[in-house]
Design brief:
The complex is a heterotrimer of chains A (171), B (798) and C (288). With 798 residues, chain B is α+β, with helices and mostly antiparallel strands. Chain B has 19 helices and 30 strands. Helices cover 27% and strands 23% of the residues of chain B. Chain B has a 7-stranded mixed β-sheet with strand order 3-5-1-13-10-11-12, with helices on both faces. A 5-stranded mixed β-sheet of chain B has the order 7-17-16-15-8, with helices on both faces. The radius of gyration of chain B is 27 Å and the shape is globular. Chain C is globular and about 60 Å long. Chain C: It is an enzyme of class 1 (oxidoreductase).
């Protein structure tokens, strides 16, 4: 069947087999290989992407059901600059080793930044508890998220009353 | 030896030596691509005319294959070809996974797909190739196999009994390997001992669960006779040899390319029959074939590990002196020893490592390695170490309890003295230099033991049971040919590095070790930058391509930094000397009066910049006519490195675990964890620390959650990530990491391995913490994983 | 594994849905269970009929003296809805226990109840809160008590051609006390044993209408009728808790699973019962 949707801000129209899940659609049909299939039964979190602004498991979404939807992947999130500071913290703190979980982890962490600005370390660990990382001990990831949150908090309070600041300006 | 200048070694600050990168926390150059989703894993590679493989896998633990009907599969839209074991046997020779130095070892020939019998549930039996993976799976579903189910051998305790199922009748019995190490007179010493503590430990069969599953694309090009294999592997050159040997090609006809790898931990250093089948099918068809294991296949066909039952005794004197160990290890490895490293190594390591940190006189340890109709086991992160450590440290804390001694005092009394090296352990391991006492001291600077003990007492009074447990360990790294090569396996213990300078003054290094995410490329870049004298950003690293890197062993057994790193350092220093010779000719100065600092030729005495490498490159490459006619001007150097004095570079460390046991639910809450490890020279603390933490978490996973559960008929019950539990962020503790550095004198770099230390010690430390919490209640647990059911049973609550 | 071949239809209204529901059709709501199981290739899924864009199945409201939660309400919406927090606080408490954020963003209450996993939180909450399920079919609807809806392992009272349209919860009165507790190996895992406990605690400190409902320990939510009876009318003190624990054993017939034997589940249920009731005990009693 034909679907038309927005992926990373670009409109795409494709024929999809109903049996295609979103991650295969992104990887195989659109060449967006940043999202990974780690278990394909909804447990590992490597396929975490945004649909209509909320994080979902890409392996538990039918591509065919997304006609008219808005999908954001790690590629789009990166290009937008929305989490450039978080990505810098991941690099600075070695919060990725093999990197296979990392795009999903960044998507899940971005959800914390977007919705839970006051998350402490325990809340960060809890929010990321559906994203499996075999390499790190999770600690560097937690610290990268915590550091990003606190830097944003400092900038937000510093920026108060100084009008709009673009996200890029935070970097 | 070990005289590479680092800022600390010559009393300078980092600012004084700007391109001194060894020992510095430099972010990994490859991380931006990982956090942006721009890495290239094997599944991201798409080749023209590529087919996708799926396998029909045995639903039975043990069954004769009576007939395979493939007609319906061939009729499935998209299906191109179906291969059976008989089809592949025509083009692929079987293997037998034994090593000559493991005396008496035996195993049966194994084909890529079995000919007439399946021997574990999940064994690949028929391959279907189609234009998509989904279509290939449709084809698999359409195949009919007539099975004749056979009795399965699933209990290792009965594997050697008379009348049991002998999995390979031609072998005579199910015993693959046995070895006993002895020293002193165990029977007499134990009879005379003040006290003997004794226990049976069980470590649960578990597996690696790399987030990227096993992945391979094989492409045989008839036009040039080359088999190109893209593979997520730790050992490209080993795989090159295996593919060539068994597909009847020359090694030079096989190229193995390994791009980004999504975690390995030993899972990706073995020869898997289904992957060989992929290469064989590509060879037959002359086109690329991709196979990416799905998660269910991973659980059933990735190697498993740690399926051991260990009966162990330790004898002590009244003053806490350890007299000796007496250990009986039994391990079930599945129906075949895994090629080419064999499945006898884990048991063998238990024999080598029990009692490792201690100086004692009497030792007897036997391992028996037996066959089972379960997934094959083989080397997985920290091979044998967590088993030996849990046994040793479990006994140490038991003995301390029985003697009424502090377990740390008992350890200190028995640990090999830091000035006692070189030292040979009772099972014959030779230690060049370890730091047990310094590491324990360092750990006690980090762990607030007095505060923890006070809290423990306070909490106990209100019914909260917390425990503090320790585990000291040794770790085997930087293996020499004594590990595999001596046994006849073409697994290289040496490794090479080629370093060149390009016209713009940048440096490219290609290395035989590989990157699996641990940061191998980052440390190689640091070492090369340090050695040549350039900013680290000016160094590019090439790994994972047999056609473009020096021959080497790859990355396993913690050899990347120690072996690959030294080769990189030596080749970098050689390139530096070469550059200085050219620079000397250009500047009419003695080469020894010059240096290279941050990409510039400098005057060694004054530090004044004389010329950029960029300018030197311009002249060498484009105006060679202006240089003296006979001046050597090859700005490229290769060095290979192999350890010489010691079969292995042993490292050591100690961990502490602080945990709370809910005695009503049996749940264990991890409160805090500490590690001190000595991996010799730390090249990049940032990388080592998080790698140690990852290792700890992997060890904690095995101790708390991870378990490949089979029923008595050999059916695997934990086939999904909802049933096989891995450690996730919410339950894992903060982990503090400290270092003691005892560089190996085998190399200039002095680096030993670090990747397995966390995993080696964590299960033992956690076990001791749980048992410290349970001790006042008269309970203890020795069988991993330490599940709520086991803890409640130990407490007599159920 | 890749999903087997399947059909896909989207219904934009109930009328379209009735037309689409034929032989071999399966309802697709949030898909967080159904799509995960497709990867096992255990069955031929036929045609999936996507109901997520049917407006009649959405929305949370208080009407006719009940809290009506549309079947398509996603777990995340349930967890942050103010009406739910006010009128059925047990549900608000339950949501963080359900899997992980990305799952909660997709999974729906209707899907969870229809799948009827015995270890799932929402079926137990529905029973504990004495909810009523509104089941719609072509040309009509019927109401079924949650207690009667769950009929066995992964089976419900849903007839072919019928869907869950909404769930109606009685409004929590000021004396309602509710708590959900579970023992799960890791955060977000299905519970080894769980308890959704709802009761009224009168001004006299006496318990009325207790509905202790266990999950993960049977073939569906287990309303502990004997334990409830042991509590009815009693002051919530240590003796009452002990009596309920003693009575509980006869309410349970747990299966063994990968986590442990039936005896472990029985034990965990007793522990949860004690902890839940302890947490609902007035502070003065706790001090005593």
């Amino acid at each position: 069947m034909m679907i038309t949707l927005t992926v990373n801000g670009e409109r795409v129209t494709r024929h999809v087999e109903p049996r295609r899940h979103l991650i295969d659609f992104l990887r195989l049909d659109l060449g967006l290989t940043g999202s990974h299939a780690g278990c394909e039964h909804g447990v590992c979190g490597a396929c975490t992407v945004r649909v209509d602004g909320e994080i979902v498991r890409g392996c538990l979404v039918l591509a065919a059901s997304l006609d008219g939807a808005e999908v954001t992947t790690i590629e789009g999130l990166t290009d937008s600059g929305e989490v450039a500071d978080l990505q810098d913290q991941f690099v600075a703190r070695n919060a990725a080793q093999c990197g296979f979980c990392t795009p999903g982890m960044v998507m899940a962490a971005a959800d914390i930044l977007a919705h839970h600005a006051d998350a402490d370390r325990a809340a960060i660990r809890e929010h990321l508890a559906g994203n499996y990382c075999r390499c790190t001990g999770y600690q560097a990831i937690v610290e990268a998220v915590a550091a990003t949150l606190s830097e944003r908090a400092i900038h937000t309070s510093a920026d108060a009353g100084r009008g709009d600041r673009t996200r890029e300006a935070r970097r | 030896m070990n005289e590479i200048p680092t800022p600390a070694s010559i009393g300078l600050s980092r600012e004084d030596l700007p391109n001194s990168y060894i020992g510095r926390s430099v972010p990994r150059p490859s991380l931006p691509k990982l956090v942006q989703g721009r890495a290239t894993y094997t599944d991201d590679v798409v080749l023209p005319r590529m087919l996708h493989a799926a396998f029909l896998r045995s639903p039975h633990a043990h069954a004769r294959i009576l007939a395979i009907r493939i007609e319906a599969a061939l009729a499935v839209p998209g299906v191109v070809r179906v291969f059976t074991g008989a089809d592949l046997a025509k083009v692929c020779d079987p293997w037998v996974a034994v090593l000559d130095h493991l005396k008496g070892m035996k195993s049966a020939p194994q084909h890529p797909l079995p000919l007439d019998r399946a021997t574990w549930q999940g064994e690949a039996v028929v391959a279907v190739l189609a234009d998509t993976r989904a279509a290939a799976e449709d084809g698999v579903a359409a195949i009919e196999v007539d099975w004749d189910p056979l009795p399965a051998q699933t209990d290792m305790e009965t594997a050697l009994d008379a009348g049991t199922v002998v999995i390979h009748p031609e072998l005579g019995d199910n015993l693959v390997f046995t070895r006993t190490a002895t020293k002193g007179d165990v029977d007499a010493a134990f009879a005379a001992a003040h006290k003997v503590v004794e226990a049976t430990f069980v470590t649960g069969r578990h597996t690696g669960v790399t987030l990227e599953p096993r992945s391979i694309i094989a492409d045989y090009n008839r036009a040039d006779g080359m088999l190109t294999v893209h593979q997520a592997t730790q050992a490209p050159h080993m795989m090159q040899n295996v593919f060539a040997k068994h597909l009847r090609l020359e090694e030079s006809q096989v190229r193995v390319i390994c791009k980004d790898v999504g975690g390995s931990f030993g899972i990706k250093v073995h020869v898997y029959p289904d992957e060989v089948a992929v290469a064989a099918m590509a060879r037959v068809l002359g086109r690329p074939v991709k196979f990416i294991a799905d998660r269910f296949e991973s659980f059933a066909s990735d190697i498993h590990a740690r399926d051991h039952r260990i009966k162990a005794r330790m004898a002590v004197n009244a003053d806490g002196t350890i007299i000796g160990f007496d250990v009986d290890d039994l391990t079930g490895i599945g129906p075949y020893s895994v090629y080419p490293r064999t499945s006898a190594m884990e048991g063998n390591q238990v024999v080598n490592l029990v009692g490792g940190p201690y100086d004692f006189a009497h030792y007897r340890c036997t391992t028996r390695v037996v066959l089972q109709n379960k997934a094959p086991t083989c080397q997985y992160r920290a091979v044998g170490h967590p088993i030996a450590t849990a046994v040793t440290e479990g006994l140490v804390e038991m003995a301390a309890r029985e003697l009424g001694m502090d377990a740390l005092d008992l350890r200190r009394r028995n640990m090999i003295r830091d000035d006692a090296y070189p030292f040979t352990s009772p099972p014959g391991m030779r230690f060049e230099g370890l730091s047990h006492h310094a590491s324990l001291d360092k750990l006690l600077e980090m762990v607030p033991v007095a505060r923890i003990r006070a809290d423990q007492a306070e909490q106990r009074a209100i019914g909260v049971h917390r425990g503090l447990g320790f585990a000291a360990f040794i770790e085997l790294t930087n293996p020499s040919p004594f590990m595999y090569g001596i046994g006849g396996a073409r697994i290289s213990a040496q490794d090479g590095c080629t370093v060149r300078m390009d016209p713009d003054g940048s440096v490219v290094a290609s290395s035989g070790v590989t990157e699996q995410g641990q940061g191998t490329e980052a440390i190689l870049a640091q070492i090369v930058a340090h050695g040549v004298g350039v900013p680290v950003e000016r160094v590019k690293i090439i790994t994972g391509d047999t056609l473009n890197t020096p021959y080497g062993g790859g990355t396993w057994a913690c050899r990347g930094a120690g072996i690959g790193g030294e080769a990189a350092l030596q080749s970098a220093l050689a390139l530096k000397a070469q550059i200085l010779e050219v620079a000397g000719a250009m500047l009419q100065a003695a080469p020894e009066s010059l240096d290279i600092v941050m990409g510039h030729i400098t005057d060694r005495a004054s530090g004044a910049q004389r010329m950029s490498l960029h300018e030197l490159g311009r002249i060498v490459y484009f105006r060679g006519d202006t240089l003296p006619r006979d001046l050597p001007r090859e700005l490229v150097q290769t060095r290979h490195f192999i350890t010489k004095e010691y079969p292995f570079a042993f490292t050591n460390g100690i961990q502490a675990c602080w945990a709370e046991v809910d005695t009503d639910t049996g749940m264990v809450k991890l409160l805090e964890h500490w590690v001190v490890e000595d991996c010799g020279r730390v090249v990049n603390p940032l990388l080592v620390d998080e790698q140690v933490r990852g290792g700890v978490v992997q060890g904690l996973g095995g101790a708390l959650y991870e378990h490949c559960v089979y029923d008595e008929r050999g059916n695997l019950l934990t086939t999904t990530m909802a049933d096989y539990l891995v450690p996730m962020s919410a339950e894992m503790p903060d982990i503090h990491v400290g270092h003691v550095e005892t560089p190996t004198k085998e190399s200039l770099l002095g680096a030993k391995g670090a990747g397995e230390a966390g995993t080696a010690g964590a299960p033992g430390a956690l076990m001791n913490a749980i048992n410290d919490a349970l001790a006042p209640l008269g309970a203890r647990v020795l069988e991993q994983p330490f599940t709520p059911a086991r803890i409640l049973a130990a407490l007599g609550r159920i | 594994m890749k999903w087997p071949a399947l059909g896909y239809l989207r219904a934009s209204s109930l009328d379209e849905l009735w037309r689409a529901l034929g032989d071999g059709a399966q309802i697709l709501a949030g898909g967080q269970t159904l799509l995960a199981t497709l990867a096992f290739r255990l069955s031929e899924p036929g045609t999936l009929v996507d109901i997520t864009r049917i407006p009649e199945l959405r929305g949370i409201s208080v009407t006719g003296g009940v809290l009506r939660v549309g079947a398509l309400t996603r777990h995340a919406e349930l967890g942050r809805d103010a009406l739910v927090a006010r009128h059925a606080p047990l549900l608000t408490q339950a949501v963080p226990h359900i899997a992980h954020p990305a799952i909660r963003n997709r999974g729906t209450i209707g899907g969870s109840l229809a799948y009827a996993d015995p270890a799932a939180e929402l079926p137990a909450c529905a029973v504990a809160l004495d909810a009523t399920l509104v089941l719609a079919r072509e040309g009509g609807e019927r109401r079924v008590k949650a207690t009667d809806f769950f009929t066995g392992l992964l089976t419900t009272a849903l007839e072919p051609g019928e869907i869950i349209a909404a769930v109606e919860f009685p409004l929590a009165g000021p004396s309602q006390r509710a708590v959900i507790l579970e023992v799960a190996r890791r955060s977000g895992d299905y519970a080894m044993a769980g308890l959704a406990a709802v009761l009224d605690l009168g001004a006299d400190g006496r318990v009325t209408a207790p509905r202790l409902t266990f999950f993960g320990v049977g073939d569906g939510p287990v309303l502990a009728t004997r334990a409830n009876a042991a509590l009815e009318g009693r002051a919530l003190d240590a003796a009452a808790i002990a009596a309920a624990q003693a009575a509980l054993d006869a309410d349970l017939d747990p299966p063994a699973d990968l986590h442990g034997p039936p005896a472990m589940k029985r034990h965990l249920c007793r522990v949860l019962l004690g902890r839940a009731l302890q947490s609902l005990t007035p502070a003065t009693e706790q001090a005593a």
